[in-house]
Amino acid sequence: MTPFMVRVHQVVTGSPHTDHTPELMESVPRTIGQGTHEHVELRALAEQLVAEANAVLSGLTGEPIRLQDGSGTRDQTFSLSRAGNWATVTTSYDGGVALAGLSGPAFPAPRRELAGEDALADLILTLVAPGRRVPTTAGAVR
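Predicted structure:
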């Protein structure tokens, strides 16, 4: 098993709690190229981590994480959901810049984004924790 699969197993089976609240940061404008690159990189990692988590979940709970892509005329998105919990990662394009964002019931503050790859892994762990909703005060903001 990968280290992330071990973490998923620990969270689902109730091993000693470790904090997996995703770290957030203020969204900052990026060039369209940089913003697109970072979104695609994060989306690719999401696919890998969801596959790993679902491999563990299939033997324990049977309920997988769903990963769904979306796009519009001025944005691209991917959403993660499981058992009523969900979050959407967005990159919006306007005025020649790209701006990343995170939305969902636990992320009411505008213009926050995941603070990197570890934050994405932590976000996925919040979706698999038994009986736990994505925290309403998710993440410290840098």
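Summary: Residues 3-128 form one domain.
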